[in-house]
């Protein structure tokens, strides 16, 4: 634990912080000790592609018929309820616009509205079962926390479709294995299929394909390779081809989204007259920085940034902000998808996007409602949540450069007794503060006498506490 910072703050700032401690906490809906099979005769499953076992399009079976949920009015609260129906502890996110592909059959629920604490989705409000004006292009999905509810005894099917699919892609250097500086930017394209790694037949291979492969490996662009050199090399090596006919448009975020064909087990002559596909990628500034070319990169004149990421835990992650008329603003998540996210990622020097997050998962950029007065030393930069109820002297705490961790938030008011007060018991506040890279929990706030041993002991009493619930 170490203090973040100490500053002067008006009593209103104190009020703000206490308000925040109850509004920034994570929802931790109570979960029943044991889940009975089939809530209200309903069954739930996750479907779609590509996905992990704990995410997908939500499908509900009712009266023997499987159907989906429309994304209209969908919220994280609804996702919490659905994830618990599926046997997971909670949701970490949700998706819209059929991110996992459109479903079929009924659209069982529309305008679903849950508070997050419901034991069953039947307790949530909606337009009524089967009443929807949506199409399956609006199917909602959930991303559950990869943690099962203890004692969950539901027979809900969690089906991961075992399609033949490209699970992973890598570039294997054709020469000098292991003697090159990381990252590998040029070499044979290899794909991992259920039975292992194999090469891709280069017949019909295009620059669009290379663009997609480089993008998904984190490189913003690709360059031409010495085809003659690789052809010669290929003649002297054995290959096992697993894939052919790859035809990407170039905007795909993953090779598995391109049109392609797998070889069948009984295809004896694979890739006749062809060779393994080879790509050469151009690393972006992040990789260049990690391989000792940082100075070179920094000395390049940099154009004025027009896009930036804020509020993410790692480089290459965050809320997208764009500069327009010298003001940074955010982007609405409507129609926000991997394609759009990839454009931003490449503009920032990364490859294609791994995920397009919506529903303000990187925090909402709440717009200022009031102009704030700033009296010299009180100035704290803008960047934190700033929802003010009154037009008063107010400050912000910019936490965008603070690393995730546990901190003590301390606010000092009128420390030198320059302003008369009836008593000084309220002139300091100290809180425990946990930052996970996305959200801040301010808890255990203590007003007055915050410098005393006694107060410190009281703060250290709940070191494992991670929510803002005062025990
Ligand atoms: C359902 O949600 C959509 C999108 O938010 C909204 O336009 C529509 O008015 C809602 N319909 C009802 C009946 O609440
Ligand atoms: C190859 O196997 C597939 C099924 O895996 C079968 O449908 C096809 O007829 C077989 N082709 C030949 C030429 O044996």
TrEMBL record:
One of its GO terms (cellular component) is extracellular space. This is Lysyl oxidase homolog. The lineage of its organism: Eukaryota, Metazoa, Chordata, Craniata, Vertebrata. Pfam families: Lysyl_oxidase, SRCR. The gene is LOXL3. It comes from the Eukaryota. Residues 1-25 form the signal peptide. Its cofactor is Cu cation. Transmembrane segments: none annotated. The lysine tyrosylquinone cross-link (LTQ) is generated by condensation of the epsilon-amino group of a lysine with a topaquinone produced by oxidation of tyrosine. The keyword ATP-binding does not apply. GO terms for molecular function: copper ion binding; protein-lysine 6-oxidase activity. Residues 44-145, 169-282, 307-353 form the SRCR domain. Residues 290-302 have a biased composition (Low complexity).
């Amino acid at each position: 634990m170490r203090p973040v910072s100490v500053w002067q703050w008006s009593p209103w700032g104190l009020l703000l912080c206490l308000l925040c401690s109850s509004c920034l906490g994570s929802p931790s809906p109570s979960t029943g000790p044991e889940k009975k099979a089939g809530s209200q005769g309903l069954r739930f499953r996750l479907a779609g592609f590509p996905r992990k076992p704990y995410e997908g399009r939500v499908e509900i079976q009712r009266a023997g018929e499987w159907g989906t949920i429309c994304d209209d009015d969908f919220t994280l609260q609804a996702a919490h309820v659905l994830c618990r129906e599926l046997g997971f502890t909670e949701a970490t996110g949700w998706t819209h616009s059929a991110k996992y592909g459109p479903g079929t059959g009924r659209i069982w629920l529309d305008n679903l509205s849950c508070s997050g604490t419901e034991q069953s989705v039947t307790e949530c409000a909606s337009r009524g079962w089967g009443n929807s004006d949506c199409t399956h292009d609006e199917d909602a999905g959930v991303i559950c926390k990869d943690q099962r509810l203890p004692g969950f005894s539901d027979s809900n099917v969690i089906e991961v479709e075992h399609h033949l699919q490209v699970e992973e892609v890598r570039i294997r250097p054709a020469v000098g294995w292991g003697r090159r500086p990381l990252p590998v930017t040029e070499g044979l394209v290899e794909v991992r299929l259920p039975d292992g790694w194999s090469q891709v037949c280069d017949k019909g291979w295009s620059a669009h394909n290379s663009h997609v492969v480089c993008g998904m490996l984190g490189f913003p662009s690709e360059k031409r390779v010495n085809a003659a050199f690789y052809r010669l090399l290929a003649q002297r090596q054995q290959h096992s081809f697993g894939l052919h006919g790859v035809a990407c448009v170039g905007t795909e975020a993953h090779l598995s989204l391109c049109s392609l064909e797998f070889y069948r087990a009984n295809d004896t002559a694979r890739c006749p007259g062809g060779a393994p596909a080879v790509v050469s990628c151009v690393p972006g500034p992040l990789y260049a920085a990690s391989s000792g070319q940082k100075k070179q990169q920094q000395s390049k004149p940099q154009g004025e940034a027009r896009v930036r990421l804020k509020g993410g835990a790692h480089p290459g992650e965050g809320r997208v902000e764009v500069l327009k008329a010298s003001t940074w603003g955010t982007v609405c998540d409507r129609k926000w998808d991997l394609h759009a996210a990839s454009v931003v990622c490449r503009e920032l020097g990364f490859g294609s996007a791994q995920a397009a997050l919506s529903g303000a998962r990187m925090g909402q950029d709440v717009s200022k409602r009031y102009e704030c007065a700033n009296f010299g030393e009180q100035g704290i930069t803008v960047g934190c949540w700033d929802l003010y109820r009154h037009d008063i002297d107010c400050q912000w705490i910019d936490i965008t450069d603070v690393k995730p961790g546990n901190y003590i938030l301390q606010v000092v008011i009128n420390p030198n007794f320059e302003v008369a007060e009836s008593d000084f018991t309220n002139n300091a506040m100290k809180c425990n503060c946990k930052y996970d890279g996305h959200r801040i929990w301010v808890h255990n706030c203590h007003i007055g006498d915050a410098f005393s041993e006694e107060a410190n002991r009281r703060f250290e009493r709940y070191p494992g506490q991670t929510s803002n619930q005062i025990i």
